[in-house]
Design goal:
The complex is a heterodimer.
Chain A (H helix, E strand, L loop, with lengths): L11 H17 L14 E6 L5 H12 L3 E6 L11 H10 L4 E6 L4 H7 L6 E7 L5 H16 L12 E5 L6 H12 L3 E5 L14 E4 L2 H6 L4 E4 L15 H8 L3 H6 L5 E3 L12 H4 L6 H20 L5
Parallel strand pairs in A: 1-2, 1-3, 3-4, 5-6, 5-8, 6-7, 8-9
Helix pairs in contact in A: 1-5, 1-11, 2-11, 5-6, 5-11
Chain B lengths: L2 E5 L1 H18 L6 E5 L3 H16 L6 E3 L31 E9 L3 H11 L6 E9 L11 E5 L7 E5 L1 H4 L3 E5 L1
Parallel strand pairs in B: 2-3, 2-4, 4-5, 5-6
Antiparallel strand pairs in B: 1-8, 7-8
Helix pairs in contact in B: 1-2
Classes of the chains: A alpha/beta, B alpha/beta.
Chain lengths: 314, 176
């Protein structure tokens, strides 16, 4: 692997391989010294043009646990706010000798541009580009599902036969896109449920089934229900009448939660809008994997950094 | 390429039995012993030594395994290696005598990595090294405490350890 830009171009063996390395990385968190010397002398740059708590800190922690040197640029407080272009920023980072760049950007394709432009020869990790992809999130979601299913015997397993339902703001969700590709590659079946206004205009090329009714989807007894965040910052039109209406029709409330099997996973990539797409009782129930997802995020990002940064240059 | 068998199954068993006795002798009993295998073949060898220890002194064969991939000094020069799992026995290694077990001792770099890895899991009272074959050509000041067989080799020869559990056949060969 040279870059990690999207989950669409990962094959099953590579994806399972990343999850397996993440299992080994997860062991580090339980040790006396939570640090590996593996990436000593490598420089990782976090380039965040969009706000983030989880992904940024998770990448920071992952890089530090592998002993890489880490610098975080956020758009606020850097020359980007003075109008510097992506190209100039990238070339500046290249001149500083970055080995990997973790980029989050509001434009879909920003990571791809950085990886293929020739401005910088570092490994590029997509940490979310516009409404396109967020591959490490999908990987950590798959990792979380696999661990809940198989526990300590997870290594080498895929997600064959798992029924996953993604609910909510699909159209703006890079998490949904990355998950659709990755979960399908790993053998799961994906169903999208959302108001028609929050579905992409055309999903005919996607390996999914589409529905509009959450109650119907819950009665179909899925193994995983993943609630997506209503992305207020990308809502520049009226996609639904109001929050209460959305919550009543597509929110995971107590009544819907009670109809799920006790071992159905309730996932949310965070940050959660409690009371909108997910109720507090659902978010805090034993079915919820929200905090496991955060913990697993560090392991996945360590695995990806290790796989991209170790080994001979090709 | 010619292959010559240097250890038969019975020789391997005898060597491991002797090593087990030597471990107990040098440790003055089976107290506070932890046997840690280094993947891949070291895991199986450690398991066997643990089983022999248990028959000699019941309860002395505490076995685990230690992956050293992330501590290697040659990660940058080779294709990416997939790490393997580590399992430290319940009770940890603090204050224990740890015996590292590997199949072949060659440059000593794997053992250097293992010593670094061990330090991140705790502070053993002592660390010993047991190997099935010592083939020489050390690049670091490392030696084994318990050796199954010393095999003088030239550096272009290749030692292959095959064990029933991992390879379906049990033998040590020299290929040149």
């Amino acid at each position: 692997m040279r870059h990690l830009l999207s989950t669409r171009d990962l094959d099953r063996a590579t994806a399972v391989g990343i999850l397996d390395v993440a299992e080994d990385m997860a062991e580090v968190a339980g040790r006396e010294v939570k640090k590996l010397p593996t990436l000593r002398g490598k420089t990782v740059i976090n380039l965040f043009f969009e706000d983030s708590t989880r992904t940024r800190t998770s990448f920071e922690l992952a890089a530090k646990r592998l002993s890489a040197d880490l610098i975080t640029f956020s758009a606020k407080g850097s020359s980007v706010s003075k109008g510097e272009s992506l190209k100039d920023t990238a070339q500046t980072l290249a001149a500083m000798g970055a080995d990997a760049v973790v980029i989050r950007h509001s434009a879909s394709g920003a990571a791809q541009t950085l990886a293929t432009s020739g401005w910088i020869d570092a490994a590029v990790l997509n940490a979310g580009d516009g409404t396109h992809e967020h591959p490490t999130q999908a990987l950590l979601d798959a990792f979380t599902m696999r661990r809940r299913l198989h526990g300590a015997a997870s290594r080498g397993k895929d997600l064959d036969g798992l029924q996953v339902t993604l609910v909510g703001d699909i159209v703006h969700s890079r998490v949904a896109r990355s998950n659709v590709w990755l979960l399908t590659t790993l053998g799961a079946t994906v169903r999208l449920v959302a108001p028609a206004t929050l579905l992409p205009a055309n999903t005919s090329g996607w390996p999914v089934t589409v529905g509009f009714d959450l109650d119907e989807a819950i009665d179909a007894d899925p193994d995983v229900v993943m609630m997506l965040r209503i992305q207020a910052e990308r809502m520049n039109a009226a996609f639904f009448p109001n929050a209460r209406e959305y919550s009543r029709q597509w929110g995971l409330d107590e009544e819907r939660l009670a109809r799920l099997r006790p071992d159905t996973m309730v996932m949310h990539p965070g940050p959660m809008n409690r009371g909108l797409e997910i109720s507090a009782s659902a978010a805090d129930s034993s079915r919820s994997t929200v905090l496991e997802q955060v913990t697993n995020g560090v392991s996945i990002r360590m695995a990806v950094l290790y796989l991209l940064l170790s080994g001979a240059a090709e | 390429m010619t292959a010559r068998t240097v250890l038969q199954p019975a020789d391997i068993t005898r060597a491991l039995t002797r090593i087990s006795h030597e471990i107990l002798e040098s440790n003055r009993g089976g107290e506070d012993l932890v046997i840690l295998g280094i993947p891949t073949r070291g895991i199986e060898l450690a398991r066997r030594i643990g089983a022999i220890l248990d028959t000699i002194e019941p309860g002395s064969g505490t076995v685990g395994y230690l992956d050293v991939t992330m501590y290697r000094d040659d990660l940058a020069g080779q294709p990416t290696r997939a790490p393997s799992p580590t399992q430290i026995p319940h009770g940890g290694i603090n204050g224990k005598t740890v015996v590292l077990v590997d199949d072949v001792l060659f440059s000593g770099r794997t053992i250097r990595a293992a010593l670094d890895a061990l330090g991140d899991h705790g502070r053993p009272r002592a660390v010993r090294l047991a190997v099935l074959v010592d083939r020489g050509h050390r690049q670091l000041p490392i030696r084994a405490d318990f050796v199954g067989k010393n095999l003088p080799t030239s550096s272009d020869e290749r030692i292959r350890v095959r064990l029933t559990e991992t390879d379906g056949i049990e033998e040590v060969t020299i290929e040149s």
